[in-house]
Amino acid sequence: MRKILNTAHVYMIIGVLSGLFYRELTKANDFTGDTQLSVVHTHLLALGMLFFLIVLALDKVFDISGEKLFTWFYWVYNAGMVVTVGMMALHGSLTVLGKASGAAISGIAGLGHILLTVGLVLLFITLGKRIPAKAKAKQDA
After folding, report:
1. Does an H or E element contain 74, and which?
2. 49: domain range?
3. Whose CB has fewer CB within 10 Å in the chain, the N or C terminal residue?
4. Where, by residue number, does the polypeptide cross the bilayer (predicted)?
5. Does residue 73 contact residue 51 with C-beta atoms inside 8 Å?
6. Are 1 and 56 in contact (CB under 8 A)?
7. Distance CA 22, CA 65 (A)
8. How many CA atoms lie less than 13 Å away from 101 in the CB half-sphere?
9. What's the structural domain count of the chain?
10. How do residues 31-89 score in pLDDT, each as one tens digit?
């Protein structure tokens, strides 16, 4: 459970720093248009910090970290977050700096979204295994 809490904490720190980065980069470049950089902050806080705080609560109730698939979920989901948010930050920064971004950035961001989806599927499979086990243990007691 400590690993889940630490993960949420790291996403909180990076999320807050990304908001600061967005504000300072756009201010330094007198940028007033739309950029993906503006939503990196929100993605990190919602899909990172808040999501892992929910996973922490689920772990407390259902002991999902006791399942083998939980480790797969944890690493696949986090890899998806790193790739997705990294590409959003890169694309957004290039937009602010007035540089073109290629199709490769969108393609890699798509791979990040696929990893996030696979991670979510693994989480639901893990939950599906633990909820019946928890209900059965409660009936037996």
Report:
1. helix 68-96
2. 2-140
3. C
4. 7-25, 37-58, 70-91, 103-128
5. no
6. yes
7. 35
8. 20
9. 1
10. 999 999 999 999 999 999 999 999 999 999 999 999 999 999 999 999 999 999 999 99
